[in-house]
Design a protein that fits this description.
Structural class: mainly alpha
Number of helices: 9
Distance between the termini: 81 Å
Number of strands: 0
Helix content: over 70%
Radius of gyration: 19 Å
Shape: elongated
Largest sheet: none
Length: about 200
């Protein structure tokens, strides 16, 4: 008796993630996922779950993959908070510049689609979006920002980071995206210098 068709789960999940990333949740059908992964519909349902379940797995996969990169970038925040934030944005700019990847950001794209998502998927998307502010807040506090300033800048930096993905999808040039990052990092640098001067008084 022939055994079940074998496939590499990581490869299949990456293919599904790219499909959702490229087309968005609402515009991706199970047939699209079948074509992207090479699995028939019954194999998708039996091995990967329904569309919502598979999307959540892909969203978690995306968040973990880039979350690890963001965490590594922010690891020097204790001694060099400005350099850490610059490195954080570099992760995004490098992803945007990669010709092998779709434009934009799967999390930002999903957040904009929240009105058409199921409650469970919408809640998961909000959580994934919130992780970015949390890691930035922790990094800025490690860089000795006050709780209030760390909170304000974390929300702002996360918003800028998501806007880079949206603008890249709309056709903004690499130079325009870099200019946005430069202004944002400069604002943080000036805020930290002002705090240090005040602390030295």
């Amino acid at each position: 008796m022939a055994g079940k068709k074998q496939f590499d789960m990581d490869t299949v999940l990456d293919a599904a993630m790219i499909q959702f990333w490229r087309a968005g949740y609402a515009d991706t059908s199970v047939d699209d996922l079948s074509r992207a992964t090479g699995l028939n519909r019954s194999s998708i349902y039996s091995s990967l779950g329904d569309k919502d379940t598979l999307f959540l797995r892909c969203l978690d996969r995306y968040a973990a993959r880039y979350g690890d990169k963001y965490d590594a970038a922010l690891s020097c925040a204790v001694s060099e908070p400005v350099a850490a934030v610059r490195a954080f944005f570099d992760v995004t700019l490098e992803r945007i510049a990669d010709p092998e990847l779709p434009d934009g950001c799967l999390i930002a794209q999903s957040a904009m689609a929240i009105p058409v998502l199921s409650p469970a998927v919408a809640a998961h998307t909000r959580q994934a979006l919130g992780f970015q502010s949390l890691r930035l807040r922790a990094a800025l506090k490690a860089g000795r920002m006050t709780d209030q300033d760390a909170e304000a800048f974390a929300v702002h930096l996360a918003a800028v980071n998501q806007s880079l993905a949206v603008m890249s999808r709309a056709g903004a040039s690499p130079e325009q995206l870099l200019a946005i990052v430069d202004v944002t990092v400069d604002a943080l640098s000036r805020a930290l210098r002002a705090r240090n001067r005040a602390g030295g008084l």
